[in-house]
Structures are given as C-alpha cells and as structure tokens.
Write a structure and sequence with these properties.
- The protein is of the alpha/beta class and about 325 residues long.
- It contains 11 helices and 13 strands.
- Strand 8, helix 5 and strand 9 form a beta-alpha-beta unit.
- It is globular and about 50 Å long.
Length: about 325
C-alpha cells in the first residue's frame, strides 16, 4: 500500500495492537549507574505503555482509535482501561488476565529530561494471536495499523499479516529494539526507528545524518516501503519510495522525553491516514513530539490537535 491514503471526510481510523503499562516515575538529578543510589526529587504514577500511549496520542490528534491489548484484573488494569475510555478509545478488544499482573514500567528522569526505563511486561507478554484474531475485522477496516514491540513478536507479525491481506497501512515502531525477521519487515509499510534502533536493525553505526541515511536505505532494502528515522532535536529523516528528505527538528527545553517516540509514530499514522504526504506527516509528527517532551509523564504529556495547531516553535533546529 502507498504510504499515504486518500483524505477521508470522517476521522482517520487507526487500530493499535500493543502494550499497556502503568508508569512509576522518579525524577532525579542523574540516572543512577549500577550499584549507585540517587535521591530523587519527586514521584508520579501515570498511564503508559507504548501501545496505550500511541492510542491516546492518535485519539487526541483526532483519530478514531481501537486498542487491542491485555491487562490484569488488578487496580492498574482498571485504571488503564478507564484512562483509554476517557479518550473515547474503543477498548472492546482489551483482554483481562486474572492470572498475571498488569504491566508496569519503572522510569527515572534526570534534570535534562532524559530517561532510563525498566519494564515488567506482565499481561502484555500473554497477548496472543487469538486475541488479535478477534479484532481482525477492525484491523481490516482501519486506515492504519500501528504496532510496537512490547508484546510478543509473533503477535506483531500476525497482526501485520492481517493488515497486509486487507491493504491496511502497517506502521511499525521497532521499540524496544529487537532483531526483526524478513517476514515481518516485508509486511511493514512504514518503519519508524530512532537512531539506536536503526543502528541495531541495520547493523551499522548511526550518528550523523549521512549514517542515518545509509541505515535507512539498508532497512528499506530489507522490506519496508518507507523508513523514517527519528533524530531527536535534529528532526527526522524520511527515506522512502517517493520521498527522501530531512525534516528539521524543533528546539525546545525538554522536561521529559518519555513517550516522545510514541507521539511521533502516532502523529505520523494520523497524518498518513488523513491523506498527508510522508514529508508532511513527518513534519507534523515532529511538532507533536516537540510538544510532548515539554511536559512530564507519558500519556499526560501527549498534546491535542488544537494544541499542535496553536504551537509556535521557538526555534527550528538543524
């Protein structure tokens, strides 16, 4: 399928298959190294998980979103579903697991807004192909399927296959980084790695723009039609069948980079599903990600479409 679809009169329809976690966040001056204890300054609990984050981001940007995932029957699971419902996200395909706890993520955020994250997947690890099959019609009817890697890889591959058979746009955010097989890559329309993920997947260093471009070309040769490498404050590199362009970054004062990648991928999906070209969607996604890092927390930091429209970037980066 082309990396963009015809503009729709109604809201873009996006299905997200992925993880839901509760984020336990400590702010500290520095991120501790092994064996070190650092005294933090504050603690917060927030809804998170890459799949749920991307669902909320897409919904706030105006998409009609269906989330397919798995949570426990504990308080964290109750809160996760309630948070999705508040965003008017369809949760009918969220499974409840009475035998395993909901997923949690332990996050340390330093004074520069950088983070270190440890995840206990819990119920996310027990999502399986049968759960995805129950949502197959929704995937086939969607404008775009958005995937990440905090659930079993077999489930990601299965969902992508369903979408591919129906010509639904498949967008994969390959995070956290893990090796991907040729079958999955061949089913992906748009791959959205950051620099570290691109380096691991392509098997080559990704520092500057030229290295990112070489890695993106190598990844495209492995299957995806389009690769968009996110470069933090330096923007994003689009390497695709129709466009090869560097989208400049937006310089902001970061508060917390948690969910920035999720915000970018979701905004890219919304843009493409709404009829934007790849470069236009990437520019839009860069604005969304810049707004996200200016606030603390995962889902609490995700902006609405109105906030993105009002956003006046202070400075365009390189």
């Amino acid at each position: 399928m082309s990396a963009s679809v015809s503009a729709r009169a109604d809201r873009p329809r996006i299905v997200v298959v992925g993880s839901s976690n509760t984020d336990l966040v400590v702010r500290a001056p520095t991120i501790p190294v092994p064996g070190e204890t650092v005294l933090g300054s504050s603690f917060m609990t927030a809804a998170g998980g890459k799949g749920a984050n991307q669902s909320v981001a897409a919904a706030r940007l105006g998409a009609s979103v269906t989330f397919v995932g798995r949570v426990g029957t504990d308080d964290f699971g109750d809160a996760a579903i309630a948070a999705l419902q508040r965003e008017m996200i369809d949760v009918q395909w969220v499974e409840r697991d009475a035998e395993t706890a909901s997923g949690v993520a332990f996050i340390v955020v330093n004074d520069a807004g950088e983070n270190a994250i440890a995840v206990a997947p819990g119920a996310n690890a027990r999502l399986d192909e049968s759960h995805v099959d129950r949502a197959a019609d929704a995937i086939r009817d969607a404008d775009a399927l958005l995937l990440q890697l905090e659930i079993p890889l077999s489930v990601v591959r299965h969902a992508a296959g369903i979408a591919r058979s129906a010509d639904t746009l498949v967008i994969l955010n390959p995070a956290p980084a893990t090796p991907l097989d040729s079958e999955l890559l061949a089913a992906v329309d748009v791959l959205t790695p950051n620099q570290g993920e691109a380096a691991m997947l392509a098997g080559r260093p990704v520092g500057g723009l030229e290295e990112a471009r070489a890695a993106a070309r190598a990844l495209r040769a492995a299957g995806p039609k389009d690769v968009v490498v996110t470069l933090g404050e330096s923007g994003a590199l689009v390497e695709g069948a129709d466009e090869q362009v560097h989208v400049g970054g937006i310089s902001v004062e970061p508060v917390d980079t948690t969910a920035a990648g999720d915000a970018f991928s979701a905004a890219l999906a919304v843009g493409l599903a709404g009829g934007r070209s790849m470069s236009e969607a990437a520019r839009y996604a860069t604005r969304v990600a810049a707004l996200t890092v200016m606030r603390a927390g995962a889902q609490p930091s995700l902006p609405t479409a109105e906030e993105v429209e009002r956003f006046e970037p202070p400075e365009v980066g390189r």
